[in-house]
Amino acid sequence: MTETREPRSHDAVDRVRRRVLAAAATFAGAALAPGVRLISPAPAEAATGPVTDKVRWGILIDTNRCDDCDVCVEACKTENGWHGHGRPRTDPQWIRKVTLHDRQTGATHDLPLMCVHCQYPPCEDVCPTGASFRRADGIVLVDKHTCIGCRYCMMACPYKARSFVHEDVTDQKSYMPRGKGTVESCTMCVHRVDSGRIPACVEACGGTDGKGAMVFGDLNDPESDISREAGRHMVTRIRADLGLDPGVLYRGI
């Protein structure tokens, strides 16, 4: 007797494809470093309580205070253990300073740019293994144990906020391991957030060497500092027309 089967739907095929790729990635990771996980999703139970969608973490940046200052970049490098090799096209860029130019007036304006932790992240949509994912509290991360380095997420990100690790990594932090051949980006210092602290860039910006341009907090809480600041002044989401609903807001652009 000949067995007949119904053709699979596109969704079913896609699910199978994701499982196969994930299994292949896991095997490859095990072959490189048996028993070692490069990075896992942040724990569901943080010091501040379970990770739920009742909270949405965000950062508000007042670009009017950002000129001639890069303490946020240096703080991020120190905290997370990434650094460049003098190769702008391939160096990691978890956070970088960019300069905006007004073509009519010639005026310039500096601002820090990092992963904006979208509500609807395109990096998650295109990832074939599910390595790119968004936590319930709005933080977008990469599980480097299942990242296969395809770089689809880099192509999908309209903010150019992700980097591919081309070089061997050194001086890794125990709480933020990195891996050659994987993709990485700003984690909003998830290890600090889960222990009740603020991201390193925000802390440095508010210190004696900073300009006090960054505010971190819960966008879902109308009484939080970030919500109050956003309510007092006009704020901008970069490429708001894309409908991605970034969690990083700007003022002054």
What does this structure look like?
By secondary structure, the chain is α+β, with helices and mostly antiparallel strands. The chain has one domain: 2-Layer Sandwich (Alpha-Beta Plaits). It is built from 7 helices and 11 strands. Strands 10-3-11 form a 3-stranded mixed sheet. It has a two-stranded antiparallel ribbon with strand order 1-2. Strands 4-5 form a two-stranded antiparallel sheet. Strand 6 and strand 7 form a beta hairpin. The longest helix is centred in the N-terminal third of the chain and has 23 residues. The N terminus is likely disordered.
Provide a quick synopsis of the model.
The protein is 24% helix and 17% strand. It has seven helices and eleven strands.
Tally the helices. Answer: 7
Fill in the CATH topology.
Alpha-Beta Plaits
- Structural class determined from secondary elements: alpha+beta
Q: What would the principal axes of the Cα set say about the shape?
A: globular
Strand order of the largest sheet: 10-3-11
Radius of gyration: 20 Å
Q: Estimate the strand proportion.
A: 15-25%
- The N- and C-terminal alpha carbons lie at a distance of 70 Å
What is the CATH class designation?
A: Alpha Beta
* Largest sheet features: 3 strands, mixed
How many strand elements? 11
Number of domains: 1
Going by CATH, the architecture would be 2-Layer Sandwich
Uncertain runs are: 1-10, 19-36, 39-44
Q: What fraction, in percent, of the residue positions are helical?
A: 10-25%
**Order of helix and strand elements from N to C terminus:** HEEEHEEHEEHEEHHEHE
Average pLDDT figure: 84
